[in-house]
Design brief:
Radius of gyration of chain A: 26 Å
CATH class of the largest domain in chain A: Alpha Beta
Strand content of chain A: 25-35%
Oligomer: homodimer
Largest sheet of chain A: 6 strands, mixed
CATH topology of the largest domain in chain A: Molybdenum Cofactor Biosythetic Enzyme, Chain A
Structural class of chain A: alpha/beta
CATH architecture of the largest domain in chain A: 3-Layer(aba) Sandwich
Distance between the termini of chain A: 55 Å
Number of strands of chain A: 17
Helix content of chain A: 40-55%
């Protein structure tokens, strides 16, 4: 069974937004053992949508469409699908009730256009949208399937996970996609490729190894299709782990912040943060993990130097003597935030994100990171690039990673 | 003249990477006055590439292909194009010299795989790649054009800007793309559509209006092709602005945090934040803006209630009596953070992001936001949804927006 993803929306064709929906769907569906043959984006014009459907049905069995089903005039997907499948719109009471329920929860007033969302094509299975007003429309014709769903990322995700994947699983055999991920750090992509030269040369032809670098980290993906490769996969995983050795951070696809959460939780430890150049990015990443309140207490973001002294009791003489971006200051930040917020561990960073603020001695991208656990500290200087966004993201990754590494070595209770 | 973008690469179909190349190309080409009719991604298999080419040639005049032309085994685009255009590979001395020049510059050693890059299809125009080893291949047949270029973002960008756009400009008339964006809030998408019903009814047929909703905000895009519509565009912009009136937040495509920065900067005011449920997301967004240190001083992230009392001096009795998610607590947070961090303004939020922590009285998605300027405060309760990610993002947007609105009304100096 082959799937094509179709995204409808002028905003993607003019480059106003990046199509992150398709990437998310592709990753989820692949993990579930379904094969994507193509991803197509077309604009909000009936003839372009119809041509895309014809092409897609010629190469795929299941078409997953997002977008173009809002209540406004520029959204024409529903009407176009009615024409394509030669059917009419009818009023659906269950959809109307779903809309009412959602609007009541948010205290919104129902209007005529929203009520129109309850009109659905007659010849399709209507699936309630648990997260929004536009229902999912599931068409079947000549053994092929087309599902239309909202393009709002959050609604799409709820639909794919909760409705579409379970229904596809019932109807189609999925071929097991075997995949192992490994999180690697402390090595450049090309140096890693050289390290893995022999491993790759001896990898069976039906296995593939992909490199996915991201802000100082590299995710490796070892993959093959078919359950029969399971024992070979295990063997190759072992070889890969052995070759990676010191640069291997963790197995699996979990984000760094979830790995940190696990390490803290399993050791029954709490953490706080003191951020300067990252401006809250570390705290934000840590608190994206559901249940983070079990181990995360809070942060002082001392973006301005006066906040470093007033809220974190950093010695103003240290700032004068060594500068805010220094070992001395970042170590005081780490110690004092853990004392003030009463946490076992702490992460502190101070650096120059750019584009301004760099000097000859401390150019843009200079960052100090201190991680602390009880009375132990690890303090390290990093030199990143010239892009503000890159420096914020790299610092965030390296700071969380440094804390994870410290926790990994921690075994005995204090 | 219509353009289709074709991306070749399994890594996109399995969702390992997001296709940001296409979005960048689409934005550049649109700005230069070229129309994109479709964006297609297919895998590294000859038959899929050929089918995509057939479809693309049926709806577009120019096909811009990226990817699949590296030196390694899995890259098959060049060979497939030879088959498609019925031609052979020949050795090209000028490409070989370009590769040598690049390698000498980087002190790399030339190997057999890289030398193979100098083999190019006989019946095409070869354009040197100024940033990498794989040349650009420009095919023309029956008045239609296909250009194959590298998928490495940096090399692709150099190719598009330096070679492809100038050559397309010589061969085709480009039509100016007129676009105006408007940021709207405080209204649902459907209510906005009703508000704009008359505006849309009277909009000339060659103009279009698109709605892009995102976490409590809606961006409207009014657009038309052709310079001759310039004065009509201005007229329609005026009508739209008048109709939007109170729900219009700002003109243009700037992110909310940049608008906040502008409002603070122009009034010479500083801001601090006190975050609970957003866990640093507001601070992170504010500090994404280059130069934010001119007006942003810092934050206390009081994720745990003990941090609310110890670091922000929130009265523990208020927390006991009203709960941490309450008007009383969030107002104390706002007042105390601005006093402690010595800022003119402050933003404070407290809410229940979920998935846990909700009660019957305060379900998941309940959020209090207080914004403060000198001694004035605005405090508002919001009821968002059930998704943690959505609640964090919506709260962040609404908090920044509430501060912007307060600043907009602010005229006289204190």
């Amino acid at each position: 069974m082959k799937i094509e993803i179709i995204t409808v929306g002028d905003e993607i064709l003019i480059g106003q937004i990046i199509d992150t929906n398709s990437a998310w769907m592709a990753a989820e569906l692949t993990r579930e053992g379904f094969e994507i043959v193509a991803i197509t984006t077309v604009g909000d014009q009936a003839q372009n949508i119809i041509r895309a459907l014809d092409t897609a049905f010629s190469r795929a069995d299941v078409l997953l469409m997002t977008g173009g089903i809002g209540p406004t005039k520029d959204d024409i997907t529903k009407k176009t699908l009615c024409n394509y499948f030669n059917t009419d719109l009818i009023f659906d009471e269950s959809v109307f009730q779903n809309i009412n329920r959602l609007f009541a929860h948010k205290n919104y007033k129902l209007n005529e256009l929203t009520k129109n969302q309850a009109f659905v094509p007659k010849d399709c299975t209507v699936i309630q949208n648990k997260a929004g007003t536009a229902p999912l429309l599931w068409f079947e014709q000549k053994g092929k399937i087309l599902v239309s769903m909202p393009g709002v990322p959050f609604e799409m995700k709820v639909a794919i996970t909760g409705e579409i994947i379970p229904r596809l699983r019932k109807q189609f055999l999925s071929i097991d996609y075997l995949k192992s991920s490994f999180l690697v750090s402390g090595i450049t992509e090309s140096a890693l490729a050289i390290l893995l030269e022999d491993f790759e040369a001896k990898l069976p032809g039906n296995f593939s190894l992909a490199y996915l670098p991201s802000y100082g980290l590299i995710r490796l993906r070892l993959s093959a299709w078919g359950k029969e490769n399971l024992s070979e996969m295990e063997f190759q995983e072992g070889r890969l782990r052995e070759t990676l050795h010191e640069v291997l951070v963790a197995d699996g696809d979990q984000p760094l912040e979830a790995l940190l959460g696990e390490a803290l939780r399993s050791n029954n430890l709490t953490v706080s943060t003191a951020e300067s150049c990252t401006g809250g990015s570390i705290a934000h990443r840590i608190t994206l993990v559901p249940g983070a309140s079990a181990y995360y207490k809070g942060s002082v973001i001392s973006y301005d130097n006066t906040v470093k002294t007033s809220m974190l009791d950093v010695d103003s003489k240290s700032i004068e003597t060594y500068g805010a971006v220094s070992r001395e200051v970042v170590e005081q930040m780490a110690q004092n935030v853990s004392e003030k917020l009463k946490t076992d561990c702490s992460i502190a960073v101070s650096g120059i994100a750019g584009p301004d603020g760099g000097t000859l001695e401390k150019p843009v991208g200079t960052v100090w990171i201190c991680t602390r656990m009880h009375n132990e500290t690890v303090t390290q200087k990093y030199q990143f690039g010239t892009s503000r966004e890159e420096n914020i993201n790299r610092t965030t990754n390296m700071a969380i990673l440094q804390m994870i590494k410290m926790l990994k070595k921690y075994k005995k209770p204090f």
